[in-house]
Amino acid sequence: MNFHVYNRDISVGAIKVSAVASSSLFLVGDAETIQLASTFDTPPESLIIGPFVPLAPESGSR
After folding, report:
1. How many other CB atoms are there within 10 angstroms of residue 18's CB atom?
2. pTM here?
3. Nearest C-alpha neighbor of 23 from the set 43, 37, 44, 42
4. In sequence order, which residues have a C-beta less than 8 Å from that of residue 25 and are 6 or more positions away?
5. What is the DSSP letter of 13?
6. pLDDT category, 60, cuts 50, 70, 90?
7. Could you tell me which InterPro entries the record lists for this protein (predicted)?
8. What is the pLDDT of residues 3-57, one digit of tens each?
9. Cα–Cα dist 41/4, whole Å
10. What is the separation of C-alpha 50 from the centre of its chain, rounded to a whole number of angstroms?
11. Which of 12, 38, 49, 52 is close enough to 19 for a disulfide, judged by CB 3.0 to 4.6 Å?
12. How far apart (Å, rounded) are the C-alpha atoms in residues 1 and 26?
């Protein structure tokens, strides 16, 4: 398999995020290394898994 990468300039005009999960990564561009970790110190019976939580609208948003 041949894989060619061409690194060029990136320009992002606008990004709109309407919701975030409890464990999220949002990346624009590239990264050499990403390391994520998560731990819970809550008993499993008290964990509530529900739908995404919407973000509050920004003031003056369109």
Report:
1. 8
2. 0.34
3. 37
4. 34, 36
5. -
6. low
7. Spore_germination_GerPD_prd
8. 887 878 888 888 888 877 766 777 887 778 877 777 767 777 766 676 766 667 7
9. 43
10. 18
11. 52
12. 29
